[in-house]
Each structure stands twice: as structure tokens, then as C-alpha cells.
Amino acid sequence: MRRILLAISVSISLAGCGDDGGRERATLALDFQPNAVHAGIYAALREDLDAERDLDLRLRVPSASTDSLKLLAAGRADVSVVDIHDLGLARQEGEPIVGVGALVQRPLAAVIARREPIRRPRDLEGRRVGVTGLPSDDAVLRAVVEDDGGDFDRVERVTIGFSAVPSLIAGRVDAVVSFWNAEGVALRQRGVPTREFRVDDYGAPRYPELVLVTEARTWREERELVEDLLATVADGTRAALRDRDAAVADLVDASGADEQLVRAQLEAVAPALRPPVRLNRRALEDWAVFDTRFGILEAPPDVDSDFPR
């Protein structure tokens, strides 16, 4: 794991500056602290898959999910992992960024409720549901409730920030809008009886939750670098899925998280990591319709512009 730790520790260098033995440096910013969705990235480092394409892959680990876009804008990353809704919002505000790959191939958002008394989404009427305050949370909750014939306006929304697990355990809310691959798994590990209403089972299409993003200029002028980075992540994802014990060890070393929790989260999200990195145009078009219909975006995004071929 020494290579992984070294890659993180030296990532304070600027993206694209210098090389390592003739290899071109490429810096990738994660969307958050290392977790199971990043298994392929860490496997690529462990197996030196970047070297096969003469790349020297470095990682940046942000403290908040919005930092990956800031690192990209500051020129401190060549590619960033970004929530697809954040990409749409940034593009709406005129940011010159584009999506070039998919890290996760389906939505990770869900409404996670206590098993009793919530049996189905419309049972959330008159109940307290915790949300982070992000606009995508309201969209997910509305889609799930309305798809089951419920009245979204009768659901009491409570802003809880990112404290979904303790809030549900303490009974401060009856349900939370959160991620089934992370908080959903953590709640089961804690023995909390829950029901998961995944958004793509209730009203949403199967769009890629996490995408790989770069500056439009970088895509035009350094496309080979970006494509080599994407191919490295794809190869790493296949390696992680082949050897999940090694992938779990990578993530535990990188994050300090509990091994059993990391293993359970990787098992949960593994099917959504396939096919690695590939963008599905139909899924992107369906995402554009969903984000506009449920108010995340003000106007339908131009998928061909947001995700150039």
C-alpha cells in the first residue's frame, strides 16, 4: 500500500506539472473521502496500471463533496469525480467543464426509512424525513413519494445536514434521503431495520450518479491524457472487482474505515461499477429530463455539450 500512500502525500503538487521517469503526471480529485465507489482508482494505483500508459497518477482527497470542482477550476486536478447533479448545476452557471466518463452507472440516492411504520413510500405522508438541504434531495424524495401515489407536500422535511445515520437511529426522523451504498449499508451494519426506496425504482431513470469531469479546454487540448486516465480507472475497476479482498484492503488503508463496513459497501455497490467508466447516451438523456422535471436544473441540459464524444 506504500504506493497509494505516496500518491496521496505528494498530491500537493500542481496537476500536469513535471513527470516521473518520462511518465506524464495526471491528477484525479475524488468527490469525497475514499470509499467503495473509488475501489477501481485505488486498485489502479496498487497494480501500477497507470505506468502501462506512461502516466503518473496522483490523487487529491477533498474534505467536502464540492471541493473536487474547485480543484478542477483552480487547475489543481486534471479530472474530478463529481455528482452528476453538481455537473449539471455547474454547467447551468456557465462553468466550462464537461463529463467524460461514469464512475457509477446508477443512482445511489434513496429514501431510507425505518421498517416500521413505513411500508411503502406514500406512508411518508405526515412523517418527518431528513434531508441535507441540497436541491437533489427534494427531487429524490418527491420522485419516490409521487411514484407511489403519495402527496409530496404532505411530507415534513427536516434539514439534518449529513447526519443521516445518527438522526435515524435516534428517532429524530422517520426516514432520510441518503445513499443506499453508504448510509444504507451502515444502518444495516448497526442493526437498524430499514426499508430502502431507491430512486431509480421509484420515478427516476437509471443515470450515472458519479461522473468523471474535466475542463473543456483540457478535453480539447489534452484529450489523450484524459483518455489514458479514464482507461486506467476502467482497468483498475476490473482489477478491484476481480480481487475484492485486495480492494477492501486498499480502501481501509486509505480511509481508516472499519473493514467489515468497507467490505459490505463494496459488495453493495459492485454491480453499479459495471461497465467501468462507459457513458450511456440514453441514460444521460433520461437524466437531463429527470433533473429538469424535478427542479434540480432550470432548463434541460444539452447532453451533447455536457458530455462531448
Topology, element by element:
Elements lengths: L1 H8 L9 E2 L2 E7 L9 H8 L8 E6 L6 H7 L5 E5 H9 L4 E6 L6 E6 L13 E4 L3 H13 L8 E4 L4 H6 L5 E5 L3 H7 L4 E5 L11 E6 H6 L1 H20 L1 H12 L3 H11 L11 H13 L9 H4 L3
Parallel strand pairs: 2-3, 2-4, 7-8, 7-9
Antiparallel strand pairs: 1-2, 4-11, 5-11, 6-9, 6-10
Helix pairs in contact: 2-9, 2-10, 9-10, 10-11
Would you list the SSEs in sequence order as H and E? Answer: HEEHEHEHEEEHEHEHEEHHHHHH
State the shape.
Answer: globular
DSSP, total strands: 11
Q: What's the quaternary structure here?
A: single chain
Low-confidence stretches: 1-19
Q: Alpha-carbon distance between the termini?
A: 35 Å
Name a few traits of the molecule:
309 residues; alpha/beta; 5-stranded mixed sheet; 13 helices; globular
Walkthrough of the structure:
There is one protein chain. With 309 residues, the protein is α/β, with parallel strands linked by helices. The chain has 13 helices and 11 strands. The strands form 2 sheets. Strands 1, 2, 3, 4, 5 and 11 form a 6-stranded mixed sheet that branches. A 5-stranded mixed sheet has the order 8-7-9-6-10, sandwiched between helices. The two termini are 35 Å apart.
